[in-house]
């Protein structure tokens, strides 16, 4: 075959081979499409919990995942290389109150108390690390300045056993549970728990146990239900306790909350206390009864003792509340080097100076809603001090003050409230006085 003949053969045969190679093979039959698996019906939402649309505006916001606002996408990794992590949640909440206090019976109310405008603000961050471990931190600003209101861990073993360690308000009484201004309907606190807003606060050295009382320590608390209608709450704690300087006459509340002393115990001896409360729940009504105690020493040497006892009761009928509390504190005073120059009253018939005084207080408060936006509040509260006094004190051996309060709280919008109240002070050692409050408060 000549080269020319070979070239012609290649030109003719190659396309035929290409066509033969490109010819598609028979397509196998398509298997039948499997039927879709049945879709399970949606699980009904439980009806025993609160409807989110009906949640009270005063309730704290729902937990938010920790990385919800961080913009971080999850990276898929083999399960064998990715350690399991508990889901973290956090809550941020706070409250603000601006209150203007006027003393119309005086030309200058500042001589008797902290009149004018005062702001109380609190910010709280709570973190849930798991169902058993959480932490809370709270700061507040008021007439006493900047304060760390809480910084603690909760280690929950069961409903009946929770261990709290850090800085917190120990369980004592009912009012401290709602001491934030957005949680009660008056501008100020009851006299037994007063912290800086009562008239003649310097002469009386404030109330029996100013709220919030914040301490470092450990508390064990829990809740036990007996049937469907009885709830029992308990708490027991060891804390730093109240403080004062050498040769004390009473608590020094500034030393108890001042950061200058590093928030530490002044005598290395913890104060011990606890609370027991029983609540009976029945539909729209409930009754709660409780008792509290706190004992220890408060001077640097640990020689002078104190003991505080309290009892409280709360009756609720739908949205009507009746609250009653009583507090009693026994406090030992130091004799000093010269008791005759230190005390106004001399020794008794036995030749001994009375170095223990009793300070007690109580309040009864009725809260009644008048429609959807208006709540009326009536309160009677008072203080009494019995025992020897310092030579320069303006109180007598038996002094008392009664206060009569009438007020209303108006819901302006959402959970923002306008608070209006009038107070009348009846002193045994001073002239009677009138006080008017105008405040706005709300949580966020």
Description:
- With 444 residues, the chain is mainly beta.
- It is globular.
- It contains 4 helices and 17 strands.
- 7% of the residues lie in helices and 45% in strands.
- It has a 16-stranded antiparallel β-barrel with strand order 2-3-4-5-6-7-8-9-10-11-12-13-14-15-16-17.
- The N terminus is likely disordered.
- It has a domain of 299 residues: Porin.
- The longest helix has 20 residues.
Which properties best describe this structure?
16-stranded antiparallel β-barrel; 444 residues; Porin; 17 strands; mainly beta
Query: How much β-strand is present in the residues?
Result: over 45%
How far the N terminus sits from the C terminus, by CA atoms, comes to 101 Å
Morphology call:
globular
Mean model confidence by pLDDT:
84
Spatial order of strands in the largest sheet? 2-3-4-5-6-7-8-9-10-11-12-13-14-15-16-17
What CATH architecture of one domain would you give? Beta Barrel
* CATH class placement of one domain: Mainly Beta
How many DSSP-defined strands? Answer: 17
- Give the fraction of residues assigned to helices: under 10%
Question: How are the elements arranged and paired?
Answer:
Blueprint: H1 3-22, E1 64-65, E2 89-102, E3 116-128, E4 133-142, E5 145-158, E6 161-168, H2 201-204, E7 215-226, E8 230-239, H3 253-257, E9 271-282, E10 285-297, E11 305-317, E12 320-332, H4 339-342, E13 356-369, E14 374-386, E15 398-413, E16 416-427, E17 433-443
Antiparallel strand pairs: 1-2, 2-3, 2-17, 3-4, 4-5, 5-6, 6-7, 7-8, 8-9, 9-10, 10-11, 11-12, 12-13, 13-14, 14-15, 15-16, 16-17
